[in-house]
Amino acid sequence: MGSSKIHLRKLDFFLLILFTGLQTFGQSVDPSVDPDSDIGIEVIEDTIILPHLDQDDPAPNDFITVEKEPVPINLNQIIAEIGYPEEVRKQGIEGKLLFRILVDEKGNYKSHLILKEAHPVLRNAVLSRIKELKFEPAIRNGEPIRFWVTLPFKFALDQTDSK
Fold first, then answer.
1. Strand 135-136 and strand 147-155: pairing?
2. Is residue 161 part of a domain?
3. 51, exposed or middle or buried, with CB in 10 Å at 0-12, 13-18, 19+?
4. How many Å apart are CA 34 and CA 75, to the nearest integer?
5. How far is CA 133 from CA 74, 77, 82, 130, in A?
6. Phi/psi of residue 40, each to 5°?
7. Count of structural domains, the chain
């Protein structure tokens, strides 16, 4: 299905980093990690290449007008499957994660970006199921299109059934 990477100008990449709070596709930037280590981003001349996207995919910060944004179909099921990890529940750890998810024309998960982090156990719980999300796709000019949607996942001890 074409290339598995998307090319962005350096300015676009830095705006993306600024917009996302120093997050990259599918993984957060750990301050203890050597900044020169490979995190899956490639620079060729004046172009930044991000993994997991095709050339035709919109960038996460592209402004696209649509008649209808993607609507999650099985979000409640996924939230129930994620549950509240017992090891962090026992420690009283709460958190809210914010994901930007690329939905394809068929309503399938394609990629994600973590906009807001929480405890690693909570993040990993969401990551273990996020690819199973299904959506009604975004509609523009009567046709389904690829589109980024933002979803929160909340872990609160007083609201264990709400994420």
1. unpaired
2. no
3. middle
4. 36
5. 6, 9, 12, 6
6. 90, 10
7. 1
Q: Which residues lie closer than 8 Å to 92 by C-beta, 6 or more apart? A: 157
Cβ proximity of 26 and 117 under 8 Å: no
DSSP codes of every residue in 50-90? EET--TTSPPTT-----SB--EESSHHHHHHHH---HHHHH
Structure tokens at 161: 């059934």
pLDDT digits (tens, 9 = 90+) for 26-85: 444 334 334 443 334 444 444 444 556 788 899 888 899 999 999 999 999 999 999 999
Which domain range does residue 93 map to?
5-156
Q: Is the pLDDT of residue 161 over 70?
A: no
pTM over 0.70, yes/no? no
* pLDDT value for 51: 53
**Residue where the block lists tokens 């979803």:** 151
Find the CATH number of the domain harbouring 20: 3.30.2420.10
Stretch (H or E) spanning 160: none
